[in-house]
TrEMBL record:
GO CC, any one term: cytoplasm
InterPro entries: Fungal_SecMetab_SDRs (IPR051468), NAD(P)-bd_dom_sf (IPR036291), SDR_fam (IPR002347)
Protein name as annotated: SDR family NAD(P)-dependent oxidoreductase
Organism the protein comes from: Rheinheimera mesophila
Example GO molecular function: oxidoreductase activity
Length: 246
């Protein structure tokens, strides 16, 4: 396998993925607004712009052009986008809605911005690379709660809606990508419940064995990536590789 790009590498899962592939001896491109503590000669660190601070996507064309040049140089064949957001513990505190009465414009806008808009900006920015790179694999972390048909519990209105929209976006992009690159695969991927700052407030009462360490999650996702084929493009996949319903 060639080099690996990890977008949102400073997240718990992103860091674990970086460590996993570095341990495999592969070059890893760490893309994040935050620098890593680890040091490795196979690790290339790129400072990411704060895409959430602008509504004008064209302002970042220079960044994406430079990033694509780096991907070409390192012959990147695998991309993980780990960007996602669920709650905010600082003021104003924001958390997934338990009922419709808890919905707010602030929560909805931030949830959509960080779970849909920013990932879509990366997908669009890297599109010229995805359309021209043979056997490229692009795995966008999503969530099973974005499955409309699987929704039996309710709640979490904003987060569910953002992930459902993200799943649809990747599905639609996979159809367009196939027209120019039949060897490519872009998928959304549910990583499972991982012990991280994102899931910390919601770990109580989890069934035994459901909570995974970041390292274990990284191993699972790497296995899915290894088995990913072009015919899987557009699917929503579970951490164990099983297909989830939309």
């Amino acid at each position: 396998m060639s080099a690996v790009l990890i977008i949102g590498a400073s997240s718990a899962i992103g860091q674990a993925l970086a460590m996993h592939y570095l341990q495999q001896g592969l070059p890893v491109i760490w893309l994040s607004r935050h620098s890593p503590e680890l040091r490795n000669p196979q690790l290339l660190v790129i400072q990411a712009p704060d895409l959430a601070q602008t509504a004008d996507w064209t302002l970042h064309q220079g960044f994406f052009s430079a990033l694509i040049s780096t991907l070409q140089q390192y012959q990147v064949g695998l991309v993980f986008n780990c960007i996602g957001w669920l709650h905010q513990q600082t003021e104003p505190k924001l958390s997934p809605e338990k009922s419709l009465s808890q919905s707010s414009a602030l929560l909805l806008r931030k949830t959509l911005q960080l779970n849909l808009e920013v990932p879509v900006m990366y997908l669009q920015g890297l599109w010229p690379y995805l359309t021209k790179t043979s056997a490229i694999r692009y795995l966008q972390l999503s969530a099973k709660v974005g499955s409309i048909s699987d929704n039996q519990l309710g709640g979490w209105y904003s987060y569910r809606s953002a992930k459902a929209a993200l799943n649809q976006w990747i599905k639609t992009a996979s159809i367009e990508l196939k027209r120019s690159n039949k060897t490519a695969a872009v998928v959304t991927l549910h990583p499972g419940t991982t012990d991280s700052a994102l899931s910390a407030p919601f770990q109580r009462n989890l069934p035994e064995g459901q909570l995974q360490t970041p390292a274990r999650t990284a191993q699972n996702l790497a296995q899915v990536a290894q088995q990913l084929q072009a015919e899987h493009s557009g699917l929503l996949l579970n951490w164990d590789g099983k297909v989830l319903s939309f």
